[in-house]
Amino acid sequence: MSAAAIIGLHHVSRQTDQGTLLLSPTDLEIFPADRIAIVGESGSGKTLLLRCLAELDPVQSGELRFHGQPVHGQQVPPYRTNVVYLPQRPVLFEGTVESNLQLPFQLKANAGKTYHRQTVVNWLSSLGRDEDFLTKSHENLSGGEMQIVALLRAIQIDPQVLLLDEPTAALDEGLTASVEQLVDSWFKTSQREVALVWITNSMEQAKRVCDTLYRVEAGRLGPPQANPRGE
Amino acid sequence: MDYLQLSYVQVGWATLLILVNAGISVWLRLGMERSLLIASFRTIVQLLLIGLILQWVFQIDQWYVVIGILGIMTLIAGITAVQRNQRRYPGIWLDTILSVWVSSWAITAFALLVVLNGIDHWYQPQYAIPLLGMMLGNTLNGISVGLSTFTETAYKRHDEIETMLTLGATRWEAIAGPIRHALQTGMTPIINSMMIVGLVSLPGMMTGQLLAGVEPAEAVKYQIAIMFLVASATAIGTAGSVLLSFRRLFTPDHQFLRSQLQAKKPAGKA
């Protein structure tokens, strides 16, 4: 029954250059099929924790393991295609929606993967958007649409773990539902044994999207709490 | 070669022209008299002083004296290149001075040993000092323009850089755009001046040679050689400084250390 963890954080901590502790030594394991919500005040260290999971910042102690192996140097870019971090404010590059979606395939770490237009069109139509959306310029997208593009861009490279940093914080109800739906269908249809970690400020959302809940307070990760979805 | 040697009286005639500036300033109440006075004084004192020093260096004609002077010139150029940069990172001083040093000295060495093959000895101050001076002046410009473009772009476009990293980009893939942009910006001035050299104005070195009585056909040969020497020194210096700073701003684990980029502290604060 005890499947091996996809990601394990072992005593990982973060400090400022001046030595102020931002994230106390933290242990966290993420298993296949985990849907984890992380809640906490702003400034409590939620984002730092998520960035640690994506190895985006140097850590001052501890280690991250991916399928039991430490991840360093040349292994980091391929690791990040398996564990994708999505920031709260989506960043799109100059060009169309489609050119943004094609971008990851130009990177060495994604060599061997190809852009499937039809898959993207199918995703889009499930969100009520047609093929023309692909030709839209990045300048003409709303914040919510940008978030959807950023999410699609991540999903397409077939990650095993999605790290979502308050992706719906600035969105209205309709777009929030679209984002949740997209993540949910990725979770259910992926060919891989996937997991997700979702930072949210809304307990209602945490209940909708996650099974396990963690609280972060002043740089400290609390114990896991079961959070039956749909309760 | 023959040219007219100026007497101090003749120089005096030229300095009198400062009265034109002073007159305009007084007449239009520009309030620049004080700056004019200081600037005039500094021009005269600094140049007389450097004349004395160079005279001494030329007479002594020893390699260690020449190297010493070249070292001081290089250090000043390196410090100036950093000071023009509005965004700093720990290590910028070492990286920049190193880039100025290596690029200008390598190309000056090539000039003295290969291009000017036939001079009496390699450290002959008459050649070594003005040549290095021209390399420094230009690499200094290339480096300060290239490096500030790079650090500024990296700082402002940090979210794009980071987004690339989250999608599996290597640190090089994430920053290649800003690096290319910075190198192009740093090298454009020298390419532009190669485009128009001789058409709009005569370069300072060539002008000096003409005044000193060198045949124009001879002077242009020197100028052509200098343009290419300067262009390559600028390229090496600019690329060196940008690549060294790239190494400081990213970890081997492909993490972008944006917090390393700090705005220059306002003057007056330590």
What do these coordinates show?
- The complex is a heterodimer of chains A (231) and B (270).
- Chain A has helices spanning 46-53, 76-82, 97-102, 117-126, 143-156, 173-189, 203-209; strands at residues 7-15, 21-30, 35-39, 61-66, 69-70, 83-86, 161-165, 195-199, 212-217, 220-221, 225-226.
- With 231 residues, chain A is α/β, with parallel strands linked by helices.
- By secondary structure, chain B is mostly helical.
- Chain B has helices at residues 8-15, 18-27, 33-60, 63-83, 92-115, 125-156, 158-166, 171-196, 204-211, 216-249; strands at residues 87-88, 262-263.
- Chain B starts with 7 loop residues before the first helix and ends in a 7-residue tail after the last strand.
- The chains are: A alpha/beta (231), B mainly alpha (270).
- Chains A and B meet through helix 2 and strand 6 of A and helix 7 of B.
Write the layout of secondary structure elements.
The complex is a heterodimer of chains A (231) and B (270).
Chain A: E1 7-15, E2 21-30, E3 35-39, H1 46-53, E4 61-66, E5 69-70, H2 76-82, E6 83-86, H3 97-102, H4 117-126, H5 143-156, E7 161-165, H6 173-189, E8 195-199, H7 203-209, E9 212-217, E10 220-221, E11 225-226
Parallel strand pairs in A: 3-8, 3-9, 6-7, 7-8
Antiparallel strand pairs in A: 1-2, 1-4, 4-5, 9-10, 9-11
Helix pairs in contact in A: 5-6
Chain B: H1 8-15, H2 18-27, H3 33-60, H4 63-83, E1 87-88, H5 92-115, H6 125-156, H7 158-166, H8 171-196, H9 204-211, H10 216-249, E2 262-263
Antiparallel strand pairs in B: 1-2
Helix pairs in contact in B: 4-5, 4-6, 5-6, 5-10, 6-8, 6-10, 7-8, 8-10, 9-10
The protein's oligomeric status is heterodimer
Read across the widest sheet of chain B, the strand sequence of neighbours is 1-2
Determine Rg of chain B (CA atoms, Å).
22 Å
- Strand portion of chain B, in percent? under 5%
| Mean pLDDT metric of chain B | 92
Task: Please state the average pLDDT score of chain A.
Answer: 91
Q: Hey, roughly how much beta strand do the residues of chain A contain?
A: 15-25%
From the spread of the alpha carbons, the general shape of chain B counts as globular
- Count of discrete alpha- or pi-helical segments spanning 4 or more residues of chain A: 7
